[in-house]
Amino acid sequence: MAEFDSIIGHEVALGLLGTLLANDSLAHALLFCGSEGVGKATVAKLLAMALNCERRHLLPDKWRKEGLFPEHLPCKKCRTCRSIAAGNHPDVTVLDAEGKPIKIDQVRQLIAALSMKAFGAGNKVAVIDSAQFLTHEAANALLKILEEPPRDTVIILTASKVHELLPTIVSRCQQIRFGGVEVTTLSGWLARKVPGLDDRQAKVLAAMADGRPAKALELADRGIALRDGCLAATGLDSGTGPGHAGLSLMLAWAAETAANAETLSDKLSIIETWLRDLVVATIEPGLVINSDRKEDLLRLAGQADVNYLLDCFDSLLKVRRQLEAHANRRLALEVLGFRLAGIHAG
Ligand SMILES: [Zn+2]
């Protein structure tokens, strides 16, 4: 059950779910929204456990009403909890898109599973992870069951961006928002979780992960190397100071970065954080994020021109917008490369 160690932060979302459970006012359809990797699916599974845990049902109603079990967390130890965690409880169905479209047949199977009599004494739960991948037909099929859900069923949808779902689906769900986990909490958790990671590196990785535990873990074994490689490739940590990298170096960096879509966003975050640190280092060195490279930052901060830094921030923002609009990746990155090389728009 290692994945449930991953629930950190989310006090607001968990508190809200606990209160809804305690008041018996949990809706039959829920929508968990928040960034990718923030922990929505993990909490969805935890809620499925809470709705079915054998020990929770043994608690007298009076105890629950008097708040003697205020957390309403599942025990995670009973047979039901364990089989839900392992993904093989007959009353809990999880549809995970894994980046592919969720088709109407999958939704029909899910509806059929929800319509059958429950195996245990708890609730039937269906989780649709990354519901933005529902095809139009699949979403319409789902609408019907959201309108008239069978008794004792809870359907949980997760999505990173609510506007990517049909408004008719959103309006039928109780929304629970998941914010990012605060950097200090996330870095402490990461340092405990990853052997050999020192506190300063954990802090850098937590900042790079932007509050997302799953992302922080993914970065743990390669994040520091990725950062150092990216800074060297852009000349942002070179002895001559930021803004003096040659044009050919920047064009090569743009081409290489454009060709590796999976690390592109991470590299933009790395550059953004580094430039931010160059500003912060001159004012309050204790607040730099790349604290394991504080000496380099202090040395370079004095060499970086403020207008250059502002130009770069502006360009980073534009690149992110262009990439979201599916503009030509390499062209967008080349323009950023020019700015990082100190070539101004004029
Ligand atoms: Zn249990």
Molecular structure report:
The protein has 346 residues and is of the alpha/beta class. It folds into two domains: 2-177, P-loop containing nucleotide triphosphate hydrolases (Rossmann fold, 3-Layer(aba) Sandwich), CATH 3.40.50.300; 222-340, Zinc Finger, Delta Prime, domain 3 (Up-down Bundle). Helix content is 54%, strand content 8%. It has helices spanning 11-22, 40-52, 54-58, 61-65, 79-85, 104-115, 136-147, 167-170, 183-193, 199-208, 213-220, 223-234, 247-259, 261-283, 294-301, 306-324, 329-340, and strands spanning 29-33, 92-96, 124-129, 153-159, 174-177. Strand 3, helix 7 (136-147) and strand 4 form a beta-alpha-beta unit. It is elongated and about 70 Å long. It starts with 10 loop residues before the first helix and ends in a 6-residue tail after the last helix. The chain binds zinc ion.
Major sheet? 5 strands, parallel
CATH homologous superfamily annotation of the largest domain: P-loop containing nucleotide triphosphate hydrolases
CATH class of the largest domain: Alpha Beta
**Order of strands, widest sheet:** 2-3-4-1-5
The structural domain count equals 2
For the termini, the CA-CA separation is 57 Å
Shape: elongated
Content-based structural category: alpha/beta
Unreliable sequence segments: 1-6, 66-70
Summarize the structure.
This protein is of the alpha/beta class. The chain folds into two domains: 176 residues, P-loop containing nucleotide triphosphate hydrolases (Rossmann fold, 3-Layer(aba) Sandwich), CATH 3.40.50; 119 residues, Zinc Finger, Delta Prime, domain 3. The protein has 17 helices and five strands.
